[in-house]
Structure formats: structure tokens, C-alpha cells
Amino acid sequence: MKQGLHSVVFGLFLASTAAIADDLPTYKLLMKDGRIVPEILEVPAGTRFRLEVRNEGPGAAEFESLELKKELVLAPGVTRSLVFFPMKPGTYKFFDDFHPETGQGRIVAK
After folding, report:
1. Fewer CB in 10 Å around end: N or C, the chain?
2. CA torsion, points 29, 44, 69, 10, in degrees to nearest 10?
3. CB 54 within 8 A of CB 75
4. pLDDT category, 7, cuts 50, 70, 90?
5. What does the CA dihedral 34, 40, 46, 49 come to, rounded to 10 degrees?
């Protein structure tokens, strides 16, 4: 019986976590041919958000931010998401590690 109760509680936790994640503001980023669109992404400071990254290029792409400690590798045609905790106002750099010369961008938290 105890194990069944733990399963129910854990299930409710997962369901509530998914519902909270669905309520996050979502921003989209496109990676294609070594370019990132938009290069500057403005988000509200102090707010959690989801970043949906899509790779429309013919080769792999990688969203990476050393400052934000985030990394996401995407095969061609793949879309994946990252959740960001509330940021302090400021500018945070990111880049495509496979195209560091042309794939540069910034998240600006205001």
C-alpha cells in the first residue's frame, strides 16, 4: 500500500510540474546555415521562460552559453527546448559551437 501511495504522489508531482512548464512564456530561436535568428532575444528579467530552438540547417547545430551554463546539440530538422530560471537584467552571450564565427547571439533580460 505504501508503494502505491508513493506512485500516486509522484504521478501528481509530475503532472503539476508539466502543467507549470506549459505555462512558461516561450521564445523561438532558429539555427540555419551557421546563422541564428533572431541574433538578439529580449526576455523579461526575473521571469522563468522556455527557449525553443530549431535547427533548419543541413548539418548539426549547437546552442551554447558559457555564462548561462546551457548547451543543446541539435541534429538537422530537430526542435528542442531549454528552460531558463529568472535572470537578472543584463546581456548574456550564446553561440553555435559548430559555427562560432557566424553563429553568435545574445539574450537581453530587461
Report:
1. N
2. -90
3. no
4. low
5. -40
- Across the chain, mean pLDDT equals 87
Could you tell me the CA-to-CA distances from 91 to 16, 70, 77, 110 in Å, in that order? 32, 15, 28, 9
pTM (2 d.p.): 0.78
Q: Phi/psi of residue 20, each to 5°?
A: -65, -45
Instruction: Give the pLDDT band of residue 95 (cuts 50, 70, 90).
Output: very high
Q: What are phi and psi of 66, to 5 degrees?
A: -70, -40
Domains of the chain: 25-109 (2.60.40.420)
Do 35 and 63 meet the contact criterion of CB atoms below 8 Å apart? no
Say which residue the cell 530549431 belongs to. Answer: 54
CA distance 27 to 64: 16
Task: Output the pLDDT for position 40.
Answer: 98
Residue 85 dihedral angles phi and psi, to the nearest 5°: -75, 165
